[in-house]
Every structure is written in C-alpha cells, then in structure tokens.
Amino acid sequence: MRRPRSLFWRRAWDFLVKAVAALLALLGCFVLGWILLTVIERGGPALAKLSFFVNRTSGVIGDPDDGVGNAILGTLLITALAVLIGTPIGLLAGTFLSEYGRDTWLARVVSFCANVLFGVPSIIVGVFVYVLFGLLAEDLGLPLRRPSAYAGATALAILLVPVVTRTTADMLRLVPDSLREAALALGAPRWRITLLTWRAARSGILTGVLLGIARVSGETAPLLFTALNYAYWPTLSSLNGRTANLTVTIFDRAIQRPSEEGDPSAWGASLLITLGVLSFTIVARVLLRWRAR
Amino acid sequence: MSVAEREPGGQQPPSQRRPSAAPDLLARSLAGAAAVAIVALLVGFFVALARDSQEAFDTLGWRFLITNDWDPVNGKFGALASVVGTLVSTLIAMLLAVPVGLAVALFLVDFAPSTASAVASVFGVFGARASAAAGSAATWLIGLIGGAIELLAAVPSIIFGMWGLFVFGPFLAEYVEPALRRGCKGVPVLETLFSGPTRGKDMLNAGLMLALMILPFITAVSRDVFRSTPSVLREAAYGMGATTWEVARVVTLRHGWRGVMGASFMALGRALGETMAVAFVIGNSSELSSEYSLFAPATTISATLANQFNETSGELHLSSLVALGLVLLAITVFFQAMAQLWLRWSAARGGTER
Q1: Complex ipTM
Q2: I want to staple B134 with a disulfide (CB 3.0 to 4.6 A). Which of B3, B123, B163, B203 is the partner?
Q3: What's the rounded Cα separation, in Å, for the pair A170 and A99?
C-alpha cells in the first residue's frame, strides 16, 4: 500500500472486488446449468423411446425409429478394451514410480513424461495411432486394420495411461513405509510387498481408473480417425474394422445433418455421454473424499 | 551375515529360506518396462509423426506454415490460416480465462469464507442458532459452487461443441455480437475486431468455448495453490487491519503466483490442442479472413485435422496434415514441459510453495 487511502474507499473497493468475483463464480455455475439443461431438454425425448436403445443408426433423416444401439455397444466395447489395455500399464508404471524406482533419475524422467503425455492433445493421439497402425499392418504385416475398434481402444488407452499412472503413484505413496518395513522384516519378498501396497491403496487406485474412464469415454477426437463410425452392429469379426460409437455419431450428425435444432438422436447420445461421464466423475470424487477422511 | 545366524541348533540360515529371486525380478522388470513404455510412447509420437510428415516437409518445406493458400484439390498447402487461428483462439481464451479463473479461485479461498461469516453475523440478530445455521448454509453453498465448477471440467469437449453450435452460437449472433459491434464503433482496434456480419460460427465463439473449457482447470489448480498459503501470514495481514481484498492481493496472490503461472502454462497447452468444441463452432474456413474480424469464420490446426484427415485428396494432403499435427505436438509438449520444469524449479526454490 503505497499511499494511505481512507477506510471508506478501501472497504468500497473490497466490496466491489468481492462482488465481481462472486458474480464470476456464479457465471461458471450458470454455464454448467445452461449446458446440462440444454442437453437434458433436447436429449430427453430421444431417451424416452425404447427404439433409441435397441435400433441401430439408420441413415434416414427424420426417422422416428432411429436408434443408436450399435453406437452404445461400440462405445462400451471400445472403452472396455481401452481399460483392459491401459490399466495394467498405468498400474505397473505407477508401481515403478512409487516402489521400485523411487527417487531414481529414471523415475523422475518417467513421471515427467507421464505429465507431458497427459497434456498431449487427444487429436494428436488419434493421428499417432493412425500412423502406428499403418506401420503395424503394412510394415510388420500384423492382421490389424485401421480403422478398427482395436485402433480406437489403443488411442483411448494412451489417454488413460497417464491418469492411472499418476493416481497409482500418488496413492501408493500414501501407504506408510512402516507397512513395507513390517512385511520385509517378516521375510516377505518384494513382489509380495507390492501386492500388499496395492491392497492397501485399492480404493485410491480404483478412483484413478474411474477418473481415467471418465476422461476417455467422452472423447471424440482420438476415435475420429481410428474407429470412424459404422451403421451396423459391432460383431466379433467387425471389431477389426469401422466400429460405431456414440461420440463420432454425434459429430457426424452435427456436421452432416445441418439443421436449426440439431438431430434428435445426436442430442440423445449427448445426454447419454454426459450422464455417463459426469456420474463416473462424481463417483470418483466421492470415493476420493471418503478416502481422505 | 552375523556369526549368530550360523550357529548350529538354531533355525536354518536365512539364505536358504529365502524364496527364489525369479518372481521378484519379474515384478521389477514388468514395472520397469511399463515405466519405460511411457517414455518410449512420448518419443514414439515424434518419430511416427516425423516419419509420415517427411513428404510434406520435403515437398513444401517449412514455409508451408507461413503461406496462406490451402487448396488440397490443386495441391496447395499453406497452413497459415490454421496456425494463426490456433494462436488467436488460444489468446482469446487465455485473456478471458486466466483473470476469471483467478477471481473464482480467490472467491472460493479468501472471499467466500469471509462472506459466509458476514452472512452469519447478519443473521446474528435472530440469535446464535440462526447465525450458525446461516453460516453453515452459506459455506455449503460455496462448496456447491466449487463442485459445480469442477464438474464443468468433466463435461466432454463434444458436448461443449453441441451446445456452442446449436445454443450458444445463435445466442451470440443474435444478442452479444451486435451489441459488441455497436458498443465498439469508433474505438480504433476494437472496431475492426468486432465488425462484419454476425453468424455465431466464428473465432469469437471458439475463443469463448476454449475459455470456458480451461477456466475450471485454472480455478482448480489456483485454488489448491491458494489454500496452501500458511494461515499465519493471512491472519497477520488481517490483524494489521487489511481488508479481504488486500489480504488476497498482498498475501495469497504473492504467495501463489508461481503455481498460478504453472497452471496457466498447462492451460495454454490444453487450449492449443483442444479439438471438438472448436471444430463445431469456429466455422471452418481454411482462408485467412482479410477483415481481421473475430466475427469471421476461421480454423485451427486441430479443427483442420478433425475435418480433413478422413477425406484426404492424396498422399501430400495427408502428409501435410500429419505435419500440422507434428507442429501442434511440438508446441503443446513444449508448453507442458515448461510448466513441469517451472513448477519443479519453483518448488525447489524455497518453502514458499508448500
């Protein structure tokens, strides 16, 4: 405070700043409410019909029996595959950071890279997997195709790995060293201690996986080139080819079917995705808070 | 190994009871392999994208980033519009989201508790119980506001896109943009920025979408940094008669500015690469607007990728798109790495961070 001001002006200024900050905070809530209400209002009617869930996407504009059943199944399959690929890698890497490599230069490099990887744009992950699968299929001759559900799942797994790695490392670090020392003193080998710390931190690790699922299940950009979209139901053999999914369906409908209001099924799919992602986020946050207690 | 352990009559020596080292080695190498895979992945991004963009760089050279002529059909690939669009939309987002995010974080940490206690003291006229109830209700409401802003961060990008395209864009074109154009008439620079017909699918909408998407991120990180301010410092300032804003300015902001800088770097990296929300609302014009208006449709690197990658008109087109991806990757990795180093440096620099 360079020059003294009268108490009145200081109080007035204080009030003004507080009021502006409160208004801005309310504005953030207002935007969230606006988005949620929009999605519920426009997507709700689509979800009320059974055909939305059991029919596959038809190419007919204005079809009253239009459904996104194949896209729902495709999203579930791709996300589940991504979790299957990404979780073990993230779990092991997090274990390395907290257990085997603690305080080594390698651990520092790995955690640096994991943080940077977390910030790589998801569309770049899509481009990378597109190029990677081209390499695998053409240069190595593997029976993998792009676009395919496998390519899409790989892209999502790459987004999942840094999330799981970071939370696993953080949660394992919360496990007290006395537990590890007690097990060592009883003659347990190192791998038993790792299992022990996993068990001690299981709810934290689960939170990390949930946050990761919440992050990847609403992603569009990485699937745009890797899974594309498909008007038919995914089958075991069709997984190695274009696979329907909710987010790319929304993108396709919004771009290819220009209208004032937007495609009803696209809004329904938006509502479904929003509900899924937000509920995963809320469950993870509640778990985290419950754990912190 | 001590002599006592080898004494006869005791248990077997530990060396013989020790289980085989094989599972240990396996566990260690599995964990190490997963960790190294993360590093390899990051390197692999650059290698793979560099390989597939080779043709574009060989044919077009680095100059393709600063030439303004994108015409895939005739084999012309000048990506200036995408590059400029990325920078301008990110600039708009940062200009809006950093101050607002800071204000919201200060509200949650410093202002709201004092407001809650003010509410409590106002209700004091109805007795102690009413005062406590009002105070805890206000605190609960503030927690709710904080939770809502965190939830905003979880809303998928494509939902922002749908909302921005079908709801917010028309609202912008109908009410906000005409008002801006009228309000800025005669003001030197702003007059140019806010001119021309209003469509709602333009640079301004994209910048606003980006701002809304990085705002919760900046708020969440700044809030955590501000919360770590030692309460002794804050109490000392209050004790000297400072107002809440003076405490925030002199104590909280000064204490947490390094963390806020790091958060802003990370938010910058996110805004640069954000795709779906921008691709929906920016209008996707691969020509650089000659009017310098924010009401004109534009494009960004990520939006160009999203729109054209699946419908390329040949090897060179695909290669130049991958080259754009490589440039975007390099920029975002640079900012993320800067943020990491900055945070590590400022944490090592002294006890102020914790």
Answers
A1: 0.90
A2: B123
A3: 11
Please say whether the beta carbons of B123 and B234 come within 8 A.
no
Residues from chain A contacting residue B35 (CB–CB below 8 Å): 92-93, 96-97, 101, 106-107, 110
Name the residue type at position B328.
L
Element (H, E) at B76: strand B76-77
For chain A, the average pLDDT equals: 85
The three-class DSSP label of residue B17 is helix
Using an 8 Å Cβ cutoff, are A256 and A270 in contact?
no
Q: Identify which of A25, A38, A91 has the shortest CB distance to residue B145.
A: A25
Q: What would the two tokens of residue A146 be?
A: 């792009």
Mean per-residue pLDDT of chain B? 82
Residue burial A158-178, b: 16+ Cβ < 10 Å; e: rest: bbbbbbbbbbbbbbbbebeee
Give pLDDT, residue A69: 83
Task: Write the CA distances from B157 to A142, B65, B276, integer angstroms.
Answer: 33, 27, 6
What distance in Å separates the CA atoms of residue A259 and residue A262, rounded to the nearest whole number?
5
Cα–Cα distance measured from residue B251 to residue B236, given in angstroms and rounded to the nearest whole number: 10
> What three-state secondary structure class fits B105?
helix
- Mutate which: B166, B280, B326, vs A, most A CBs within 10 A: B166
pLDDT value at residue B350? 53
- Residue A249 and residue A152 in contact, taking contact as beta carbons nearer than 8 Å: no
Q: How far apart are CA A120 and CA A118, in angstroms?
A: 6
Please say whether the beta carbons of A150 and A241 come within 8 A. Answer: no
Contacts with A165 (C-beta within 8 Å, 6 or more apart), sequence order:
A89, A90, A93, A94, A97, A114, B38
Q: Do A25 and B309 touch (CB under 8 A)?
A: no
Quick count: other Cβ atoms within 10 Å of Cβ A288? 17
Question: pLDDT tens for residues A143-163?
Answer: 777 788 888 999 999 999 999
Sign (positive or negative) of CA dihedral A126, A127, A128, A133: positive
Is A277 in Cβ contact with B243 (below 8 Å)? no
Distance in angstroms (rounded) separating the CA atoms of residues A156 and A243: 14
With CB atoms and an 8 Å threshold, state whether A28 touches B216.
Answer: yes
Are the C-beta atoms of residues B282 and B200 closer than 8 Å to each other?
no
- Amino acid type, A80: A
What is the 3-state secondary structure of A135-198? Answer: HHHHHCCCCCCCCCHHHHHHHHHHHHHHHHHHHHHHHHHHCCHHHHHHHHHCCCCHHHHHHHHH
Is there a contact between A274 and B156 if contact means CB atoms under 8 Å apart?
yes
Predicted TM-score (pTM) of this structure: 0.88
Task: For residues B274 and B211, give the distance between their C-alpha atoms in angstroms, rounded to a whole number.
Answer: 11
Interchain contact, B158 vs A218, CB within 8 Å: yes
Chain A: residue whose CA lies nearest to B338: A116
Q: How far apart are CA A47 and CA A275, in angstroms?
A: 12
Cα torsion angle, A122, A127, A130, A131, sign: negative
pLDDT digits (tens, 9 = 90+) for B285-334: 877 777 778 888 888 899 888 888 888 878 888 888 898 899 999 989 99
Task: Report residue B118 as tokens.
Answer: 């003010």
pLDDT recorded at residue B145: 86
Backbone phi, psi, residue A66, to 5°: -60, 140
